[in-house]
Design brief:
Blueprint lengths: L5 E5 L4 H12 L3 E6 L7 H10 L4 E4 L5 H10 L4 E4 L6 H6 L1 H21 L4 E7 L22 H19 L4 E7 L1 E3 L18 H10 L5 E4 L11 E2 L1 E3 H18 L3 E5 L5 E2 H12 L5 E4 L8 E2 L4 H7 L7 H14 L13
Parallel strand pairs: 1-2, 1-4, 2-3, 4-5, 5-6, 6-11, 7-10, 8-13, 9-14
Antiparallel strand pairs: 9-12
The structure holds UDP-4-deoxy-4-formamido-beta-L-arabinopyranose (WQD).
Catalytic activity: UDP-alpha-D-glucose = UDP-alpha-D-galactose
Subunit structure: Homodimer.
Family: Belongs to the NAD(P)-dependent epimerase/dehydratase family.
Length: 347
């Protein structure tokens, strides 16, 4: 009887981490979650207990707090870590670069130093397609040129470089660098999902709030891009597919004892207007919109070549855009105020 492997999740009550938590447990891993709730709600822990039937093992802390992180490694035998904790709003990063560099770089450095102290050298890093900057060729392959186009993207690129230098210095480190494309959707139960604070920056949560009536209209940021219908094209990936990609990456690290960098995308791009139409089909609600000026920094199109993840991890996305929208809509309809206590009857 082999003992279960224990995985430390940072940013554990966040959108992608909370879905990954469930999938890791279903895959037979033990999970220890840490989060400071700076961009997530403690209610997520109640929902995880409801869905898994187990009380989550959780410690409230800032990953940059070395002493607090040491205590977690003292209390638990950690076999690997999945590092989600980071600030991730592109626009905010332009306005607050110091906070983004301090938090996103500081948390990775503190985590890696603490892991090293305890001889834990298997790490899954939550990276982003944003490290590719403006794509020169599509679909994007992992050895495409990297470039930062905003401070958030720069922190992800720098974290990748920190981890590359660490592996060159100490080959005992096994790192899976996962470049997410556009995560959307929610757990099919509708009990956990994306809960952005304030006005959503990203397309699908904004569309969801228009469909449910929280916001009147969507602003489509430009329809003069070099794409079939002129609106931006992105590679949307269901958060459950993304979560399953993390399980595949951990199994790769434990089984192959070597590092890997992969795109986690579907390989299929959809335009803003295609997403709007799919959401109207899924929700049965109109999503009125206005075409407005381009958003600074946006690229025409961005989508993945997912071949390497399929060949090396044996993983590929299976959920289509209609499923992404249907699962997003169920979460939105059942939780119109996200995790905040409902102030008005559900829609
Ligand atoms: C998608 C498309 C917009 C909102 C960002 C980050 C990236 C990653 C994923 C963290 C674009 C259009 C959007 C709206 C719109 N995050 N849009 N109206 O910009 O591809 O990627 O989120 O890792 O780092 O850059 O995603 O959802 O913001 O935009 O028309 O109200 O929807 O122009 O074409 P993006 P997005």
């Amino acid at each position: 009887m082999t003992t279960k492997k224990t995985i430390l999740l940072t940013g554990a009550t966040g959108y992608i981490a909370s879905h990954t938590w469930l999938v890791l447990q279903e895959a037979g891993f033990e999970v220890v979650g840490v989060d400071d709730f700076s961009n997530s709600s403690p209610v997520v822990l109640e929902r995880l207990e409801e869905l898994s039937g187990r009380k989550p093992v959780f410690h409230r802390l800032d990953v940059g707090d070395r002493a607090a992180l040491e205590e977690v490694f003292r209390l638990h035998r950690i076999d690997a870590a999945v590092h989600f904790a980071a600030y991730k709003a592109v626009g905010e990063s332009v306005a607050k670069p110091l906070e983004y560099y301090r938090n996103n770089l500081g948390s990775l450095l503190t985590l890696a130093e603490t892991m090293r102290t305890h001889g834990v050298k298997r790490l899954v890093f939550s990276s982003s397609a944003t490290v590719y900057g403006r794509p020169e060729r599509l679909p994007l392959v992992e050895d495409a040129a990297r470039a930062a186009t905003n401070p958030y993207g720069a922190t992800k690129l720098m974290c990748e470089q920190i981890l590359e230098d660490l592996q060159r210095a100490d080959a005992a480190w096994q790192v899976a660098c996962l470049r997410y494309f556009n995560p959307v959707g929610a757990h099919p139960s509708g009990r956990i999902g994306e809960d952005p604070r304030g006005i959503p920056n990203n397309l699908m949560p904004y569309v969801a709030q228009v469909a449910v009536g929280v916001r009147p209209r969507l602003q489509v940021f430009g329809d003069d891009y070099d794409t079939p219908d002129g609106t931006g094209v992105r590679d949307y990936i269901h958060v459950m597919d993304l979560a399953e990609g993390h399980v595949a990456a951990l199994r790769y690290l434990f089984d192959k004892q070597r590092s890997v960098t992969v795109n986690l995308g579907t390989g299929r791009g959809y335009s803003v207007l295609e997403v709007v139409k799919a959401y109207e089909r899924a929700s049965g609600r109109p999503v009125p919109y206005d075409i407005v000026a381009r958003r600074p920094g946006d690229v025409d199109a961005c989508y993945a070549d997912p071949t390497r993840a399929r060949e090396l991890l044996g993983w590929q996305a299976t959920r289509d855009l209609d499923t992404m929208c249907a699962d997003s809509w169920r979460w939105q309809r059942m939780n119109p105020q996200g995790y905040a206590p409902a102030t008005s009857p559900p829609a």
